[in-house]
Amino acid sequence: MSTHTQSYETTVAGGKHWSLTLSAGSLLRLVDLEGGANVGMLFYNPGNTLERYNAPDTLKCQHTFKLTAGHCLYSDMGRIFCSIVADSGGWHDTVCGNSTKRLVAGRWGEKSYQQYRNDWTQNGHDAFIVEGGKYGLGRRDLVANVNWFSKVAVADDGSLVFDPKHARSGAAVALRFEMDTLVLLHTCPHPLDRSAQYPRKPVAIRIGRAQPLAADDFCMNSRPENVRGFANNALYHLCGPAGTPESAS
Length: 249
Hints:
- There is one protein chain.
- The radius of gyration is 18 Å and the shape is globular.
- Strands 1-2-14-4-12-8-7 form a 7-stranded antiparallel β-sheet.
- The protein has 6 helices and 14 strands.
- The chain starts with a strand and ends in a 10-residue tail after the last helix.
- With 249 residues, it is of the alpha+beta class.
- The protein has one domain (2-243).
């Protein structure tokens, strides 16, 4: 772990969880260090946690099933939490949700923290509950999450197919945050991962400052809907956290 004026770096081991609040203009870079990683992630507005990530709107307005460079991640109020400004993996899942305690126990056996300490088998759902609880969030506040580095495609019969070879060592994705955002994350297994052993894949995290938004920004201009999303963000920043002009009162 290291810190300096302009950036912060750390590594999150597999099967762990973390949370932090990132300010608008921050750049968050994730790196799959060994291959086969999964990073579950959720986003909330720290000034109003009723505003949170909306996976259906994110996919629908950008006419996509996967996430990759150029895509924006939307809140349920039509604003953009962050944009994917770089991606060497090319495919990230946001439809399959989380692993659960029952799923992990059935697939890899139940190993409690009390008995196994740091070698216990945590699941994504409970990881989010633990991190969200630090901010007054609970089970009712969980929504469909992103699974960075995980590829899930749709077969001809409509079933979802997990690609265990998709996530490669060194794969990286960079997120530019367009508004202040509370980020919950975990490195627990993807719910469709059927590895023989509980996968403990570490992920490197680097936080710095992004380049300012330009008029020809790829993410903003990749879809007409994104232009409107950034306009919503501009109004939000102009009006302040309350989201309404001060003159309205």
